[in-house]
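Q: Here's a chain of 451 amino acids. Please give me its 3D structure as tokens.
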Amino acid sequence: MTGHLLVVDDEPNIREVLRIVLEAEGYDVREAATYGEAMQLLGKTTFDLVICDIVLPDGNGLDLVRSYHAGHPDTKFVVITAHNTPAQALTALRDGAVEYLSKPFDVDELKLVVEKRMQLRSATSPAPEMFTFIGRSRAMWPVLERIPQVARSDATVLITGESGTGKELLARAIHAASPRVERLFVPVNCGALPEGLFESELFGHMRGSFTGAVRDNPGLMRAAEGGTLFLDEIGELTPNSQVKLLRALQDRKVRPVGGSREFDVDARIIAATNKDLRVQIEEGKFREDLYFRIDVINLHLPPLRQRREDIPDLVRHFVTRACDRLGMKPKEIHRDAMAVLENYMWPGNVRELENVVERTVATESSYLMTVSSLPTSILGSATDAGLLPALAALPESGFDIEAHLDAMRRELMRQALERCGGVQKDAARMLRMTYRAFRYHAEKYNLTMED
């Protein structure tokens, strides 16, 4: 196999090993020891694939991915590092890397990654999907750190979590980081498919097989050939539909309605549900054998109220996107308004937050969104929870919301310390604050057990 590869690493031994191994596979390999050398080579030569370390003497490999890939999407990046963190992995994949490997890596595994990427590059296929998955809170780490590993596998995934937590976005993130990225991601809302149409939509039908079947339809499973089939709200399927789906997943074959021939299907299956399928099994509403078929890898998305640290990043992202969509100049959100959003319970999770931000952007004529810009439903909940005084009770002279929020935070921290016997880590966990943030505010408010 031929191809032009660039290896960027400040360790000579690693560069030499990779060059020898990859040249033996038939690749033309060049080397760079620094960020600067890599940029010089990239400016002179077109490379098919760049294998890049993150920590370089004169720069950051992620900056190299971000700056070069934006203008040269055909050049693929494989990022390697000895300092693995979930946030780094997600950043690398989001900014354009196709793979993320931790040192020490297996040379055979790297060879396989390079081979797959070079094969995909030479294939004629749709352009890769882009995804945005925001979440750096501690509650999200168990999910983020598994995305690269899960993406490399073809095993079936079950994503669980409350409605609106971003299950489809996580599925798209897995697809975008997988070797199947060059093929389609096909979402199916199982809850929106009537039982009479389920088989036809998923497995396809032949022309004339029923009234209205005026042409052959390959079905959604075959449409996802080589890519990913996302079965959203799989817990909504009827028992009859569950039986048909189970057989298709077991045999990896489908037979269109009205057809006599079966077709092999190669699609990665990712399912999602906001229901507790074990309870559904006990109640006789979900087949246990289908559950075990789809629950090979389980990823659980926590509700937004358990990852409040992500709210500021999400809000800024939604504000930017809403402004772009509506053709508006960029807007800012005041810290007081952000504090109200951070303290709201968000029963509708990220989807509700997105809707609130879009509505606020659309209705606020000023470039600055303040507390008064927020929907009354959000302000009403804040008032009910004691976060804000009733608007009617505000003095004519105005109201210092920052001081009010500070006082409320201090009181909640004091109560948490009291209930936890003065142990700050336990109090921070109770309030879902990071330990560092709790210590900072405890010193700021001079909180002690005797206070």
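Q: Can you summarize the key feature?
A: The chain has four domains: 4-122, 138-302, 305-397, 404-444.
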